[in-house]
Amino acid sequence: MGIGSRVRQLGLLAGMAASALCLASAAEAQEKHKIFLSMSFIGNDWQAEAANMVKAMVAHPSLADKVDLQVQVAGPNAQRQIQQINAMVQAGAEAIVIFPISPTALNQVVKNACDKGVKVFAYDAEITEPCAYNVHIDQEEAGRVTAEWLVQKLGGKGEIVAITGVPGTSVDDLRTKAAKEVFAKHPDIKIVAEAVGMWSQAVARTELSKILGTRSWDDIDGLWMQVGCFTANSMQLEAGKKTSELLPCAGEGSNGGRIQMLPESTEVEGAASPYAPLGAPRISYASPPYSGALALKLAVAALEGKEVPKKTILPLPLVTNETIKLCEEGTWEEMKAGCNAFKPALVSNPGWFASIFSDQTPEIGLNAALVGQPED
Amino acid sequence: MTDTALPSTASGSTGLRRALAKNRGALIAAAVFALLLFLVDWISAGPLTYFDISFLSSGGATSAIAAIGQTIVILSGGFDLSAGAVISLVNVVLASGMDPMAPASVALWTLAGIGIGACVGAFNGFFIAVLRMQPIVVTLSTMFILQGVTLLVMDKPGGGVSPDLGAFYLGDAIPGWLPMPLVVIGVVLLLWLWLKGTRFGTALYAVGSDADSAAAVGVNVVLTKFLVYVIAGGCYGLAGVFISAQTGSGDPLVGNPLLLSMFAAVVVGGTRLGGGQGGPVGTVFGAYILMMVVNILLVLNVSAYYSTIAEGTILILAVLAGSISHGSVLAQQLRAAKARFAAWRAGMLPSQLDRVDRRLRIAAPVREPKASATRPPFHIRNAETLRYALPAYVCLLVVVVVTQLWLGRAIFNPGYWNSLLVLSSFLAILALGQGTVILTGGLDLSVPWTIGISGIVLAGMVNGSDAALVYALPTVLLMAVAIGFANGVGIAYLGISPIVMTLATNGILQGFALLYSQGTPAGFSSPMLRWFMTGRILGITPVVFFLIAFAAAAVLLLGRTAFGRRVYGIGNGVRAAQLSGIAVEKTLILVYVLSAVCAALVGIMLTGFSGQASLGMGDDYLLPSIAVVVVGGALITGGRGHYLGMLGGVLLLTALQMLLAGTTLPYATRAILYGLVVLGAVMALRERRLH
C-alpha cells in the first residue's frame, strides 16, 4: 500500500466524478471502441489477477487510444449479470467481455446482444450460445492429464484423496469426471475420501483436516486436488513429515505450489517455509488468468474487422518437477524463455496464480498481473 | 346537513391518513423507485424507451416474484431460507424435462413449476406448522436437501427449455405498451389482494402479529401457517419458471445467490421482519430498487472495487428514507435526546440529582433459616436449558458412534477429538457473537467480511513476524469494535433493521477489503500464530485450550453477568426491557461489538490456520453460524438459548461434516444427509403446546 495505490484510488474517484459530471466527452469516445467487462465475483485471487491483466492490456500503448473500457462486477448472481449485460447493450457497447457466471443462463441475453451487433467474448468459462466467442482451456484435458500423471507416479496402485471444485459448475464437472475416468481404468487406484474444495486453499485445508480426523497421512498415497496442493504440503510438514516424504500431488498452478516444486537446495529470495523450495512431487496445471486480457485483445481485433475464431482453446499450462524454473524478474521475454515460478520477494501471496504467460500476449507480464501495468 | 357533513369529511381525511400510514412502507418504496428510475433516465445517454422498460421489468421479475412469497412468510412471523433452492430446483426440472426444440404448453409447465414449489412449501409447512419447529432451521435443512436433489437432477449447467416459454414470459402483453413480466407480477399481486380480503388474509396478519392471541380468538394457526408456506413455495416455483424462461436453460446454482437480496427487497419494501406489518406491493418495488442499482452503477461507471460499497450505502439510504416519520426509531431517539437535553438544562437528570437514598423505609425482612428450603436438584433447576441443549449432544454421540462404526478410528483416536475441537473452534467463537445477537432477536449478516477484512489486515500487518503481532492484534480487534459499533448505532439509534444494516455493512467491508488488498491480499501469518492453530502441546493443538477457556468465559458472560441478563431481557421483549430500565441502545451496541470481535477472532484464527488470508475466506461461515445457534436450542426470535447448547450444535455439525468428508459419497447425497440430520436434531426441540 504505497503512494502509488493511493494515487490510483484518487484517480478512480476522480474518474467516477468525471464520468458523472461530463458525459459530453462523447466526441472523444467516438474514436475509441466502447468495450465493457462484466466480471463475476471479484473477491478471489484469480478474479483480481485477471482484472489486473485486463487493465494492463488496456493501458498498453497498442490499445490505449483504441479502447474505452468499463469494468462492472456482477457478483455470484447470474440474474444480475443478465441485467448487467442488458444495461451494457443499452449503454452502447460495441463489445462485451464476460467472465460468465453460468455457461447457459446468459444464452438469451447474449443472443440478444449479438443480434444488435455487439461482439460477446467469454473468458475462462464458456457460454454455450453459438454467437459468443469463447477463450478457455480444455477442462477435460486438465482433469485427464493430471490424473494420468498421478497414476503413473503411484505406479498404478494406491489410495488417494480427491478435493474437487465448486459442485454444480461445468468446469468442476468436466475436470472431475475426466479424472475419475482415468482412475477407473486402474482398479488398484482407490479414491478413499473425497471433499468439495471450492477452489480455495482455505477450504482445502478445512476439508483435509476433516478427512485426517479419521485417517492418517500414512494411509494416503497420493492427492488429486483442483486447488490445495500448497496447503496439503504445508499440512504434511506440520504433521512431522520430512520434505523427502511428501506425497505426490496433482493440482493447481499457484505460485506457492510452484515454489514448493523447486529442488530443496534452490536459493530463493524471500522464501520462508512452507512458501519455500521443498522439492515436492507435483504436477501443476492452471486455468490461466491472462484469458480475460487475451479475450479483450481478440475483441478489439474482431471490432477492427479481423477474422477471429469463435473458439480459442488455450494451451493447458502444465509444469512438473522436470520443467519448473524460477523467474528472475518476470518479464514476458523471460517467461517466453521458459520460467514459470516467481520469487516470494516479488509475489508475497502464495495463492497467487503463476500461469500468466501466453505467447499471444506480449503486452503483459508479471507487473500486469500484480499491479495492472503493461510491459514497456 | 353541515353538522353531519363536517365529521364525515373529517373521518374521511383521517381514513385517508390511516390508509397512508398503513401503506407508508410501500409508498416510500414506490417513491424511492420512481426517484431512481428518474435518476437513471437523467444520467443515461438517451431517454428511457419502451425497450429499456421492458428489459428492466424482466430483469427484476424473478426476484420480485420470489420476494412476494418471502414477504407472505415474513408477514406470518416466519422466515424461509429455502427460496433460492426452490428456484434452482424448478429451473433444472424444467430444463431437463422440456424439449428445447419442440413447442410446449406454457400453462402446463408453469403449473408444474408452481406445483414443485408448493410441494416443497408443504414439506416446510408440515414441520413448521404441524410439528411447531423453528422456520429458520426447517427451511435451512430444506435448502440443503433441495440443493442435493437439484444436483441429482442436473449435476452441471445444461439442458434447455422450450422457446415458447421465453416467448410468452418475456414478450409483450400489449406490444409497445406493456411488457409481460409486469403483467405476471400484476396477476400475482391481484391474487394477493384477493387473498388478503379473505378470512385467510386476516388470519395471516393476526398470526404474524401475535400467534397466541390469534389462537385465542379462534384462528386456526396451524392451518394458516401451513398454507403460508405452500403459497410462498408456489411463488418461488413461479419465479423458477420465470428464470427458466429468461435463461432458456438450466443451471443448478442459479437460484442460490438470490436469497439474501430477497430479504433486502422485503425490508426495503417496508415489511417488518417478525411479522404482522407490510405487504408484497412494497416488496415488488423493493426488488426493482435493488435491480436498478446495477444500472446506476453502470451508468455512473463506478469502479468494480467500489461497487459493493455503493450498493451497501444505497441500501442503507433507501431504508433510512423509508423510516423518516414521527414514529420512527430515529425520530424517537431525537425526541429522547431533546428531552434529555431539556432535563439537563433544568438540572433534573438523574446524574445531576443528589445521591440520596430515596428507598422506602421497610423493616428489614426477617431472615428465614435457609436450611429448611432445600434447593431443587440440578436437573430440575436447569430443566429448560437441558431440554433445549441436550438433543444436540445426543445427536453428536450418535454421529461419533456412526463414525467409529463406518470409518473406524474415532472414539479411541485422540487425533479425531483434536481435529474435531480445532475445526469446531471457528464456529464455536462465531456462535457466541451470532448467538448473542440472535438472543436479542437480531441477526448479524456482516460476519463473512468482518472475518475476511480482519484476516487480510492482520496478515498484511504481521507479514510473518511474531513481533508485529503485538500491535497487529489490537489494531484488528479495535477495527472490529468499530465495525460492531457502526452496526449497533445503525440498528439501535437509526432504527435500521438488523438484516439490512448488517447486510449493507458486509458489502461495505467487502469493498474496503478489496481496496486495502488491491485484489490480492499480501502477507502471511507469523510462526507463533500458525503454531497456535496447527502446532501441538502434548498432542493437543494450543487453540483447544483457548477454546475451553473461551467457552467457560462465554457461559459466564451470558449466564452470570448483568450484560447477559440484559441480553435475555431485550430478546424477551424490547418494550418490557426498556420499561424495566435496561439501556437497550447501549446493550444492543455492545452485542454487535461482541459479534464483530468474535468474527475478527475467527478471521485471525483462520489466517493462522491457513497460513495466509484470502478474500472471501469468511463466506462459508454465515449460514453455519446461524444454524449452530438454532440447532443448539436458541430461539431465532430471541430470548431463549444457552451457550453450551450452541457449542453442542457446533460440535454436532462439525462431527457430521468430518463423517461425510471421510466417505466418498457424492456431494448431492451429502447435502441431503446433512439437511436431514439438522432437521432430525431439531425435531426434539420443537415447541410443545404449553397449555
UniProtKB/TrEMBL annotation, chain A:
Keywords: Signal. It holds the Pfam family Peripla_BP_4. InterPro entries: Peripla_BP_I, SBP_2_dom. Residues 1-29 form the signal peptide. Residues 35-307 form the Periplasmic binding protein domain. It is found in: Cell envelope. Its main location: other. The keyword Signal applies. GO terms for molecular function: carbohydrate binding. One of its GO terms (cellular component) is cell envelope. The keyword Signal applies. Belongs to the bacterial solute-binding protein 2 family. This is Sugar ABC transporter substrate-binding protein. It comes from Kumtagia ephedrae. The lineage of its organism: Bacteria, Pseudomonadati, Pseudomonadota, Alphaproteobacteria, Hyphomicrobiales.
TrEMBL record, chain B:
It is a multi-pass membrane protein. This is ABC transporter permease. One of its GO terms (cellular component) is plasma membrane. Its main location: membrane. Pfam families: BPD_transp_2. The lineage of its organism: Bacteria, Pseudomonadati, Pseudomonadota, Alphaproteobacteria, Hyphomicrobiales. It is found in: Cell membrane. The chain crosses the membrane at residues 26-44, 50-68, 73-94, 106-129, 136-154, 174-195, 226-245, 257-275, 287-306, 312-331, 388-409, 415-433, 445-462, 468-486, 493-517, 537-558, 588-609, 621-638, 643-661, 667-685. Keywords: Cell inner membrane, Cell membrane, Membrane, Transmembrane, Transmembrane helix, Transport. One of its GO terms (molecular function) is transmembrane transporter activity.
